[in-house]
Design brief:
Elements (H helix, E strand, L loop, with lengths): L14 E5 L6 H9 L9 E3 L2 E3 L2 H7 L3 E4 L12 H11 L4 H14 L15 H13 L5 E5 L7 H13 L3 E5 L3 H5 L4 E6 L2 E5 L4 H4 L15
Parallel strand pairs: 1-6, 1-7, 4-5, 5-6
Antiparallel strand pairs: 2-3, 7-8
Helix pairs in contact: 3-4, 3-5
Amino acid sequence: MLCENLSLHVSHKEKIALIGANGCGKTTLLETIVGFCALSEGEIEIFHQKIASKEDFKNIRGMVGYLLQDSDNQFLAPVVEDDVAFSLLAHGMDKNEARAKTDKILKDLGISHLAKKIVYHLSGGEKKLVALAGVLITEPKLMLLDEPTSGLDFDMQLKLIEILKKIDKSIVIVSHDKEFIEGVVDKIYKISANGLKRMSNSDTEYVHAHDGFPPHTHPHEH
């Protein structure tokens, strides 16, 4: 068991972040919420539905979007526009309607120019935005983002902050990037073997939370 006494409540359209030391169970918690990992104890309730079986997870899976830490593991088709449209087509949507939705989401994220590109030839930041498009196009009510700034340069991080701030959905973010999550979320929780603790900017443990955040550096021009 990675953690116990853990209770997490995410309200409608609330954005929260989970921080903590490597190996404390942040990613495992996301995988449990989406049904990739089974609970050994306790219960999960999503959108007022108690989730106890694989069938229960199937019923809510379309309402939960999960952005993996490694974008390469998220892609299902080699061309950007085909990958973003994949889930819609897999669920029987008309091809023209799926293409129109794909064009819109790519435009909304400012990556229409990538539509015909091969996903594996993109930069880390471009891959992340394409993967995010694939999540957003399903119109989930809850989004789970695992280290969304991993591999992004500073400018791309700023762009991602602006995108996520405009998304009117419930979002749970796992991240080690302090400045990023402070720019996006409403609440920050630290996860440990003893459960969750709400953090605040005035909390000494948060300000000096070296086990939750790595040393932060800023690039300087010379």
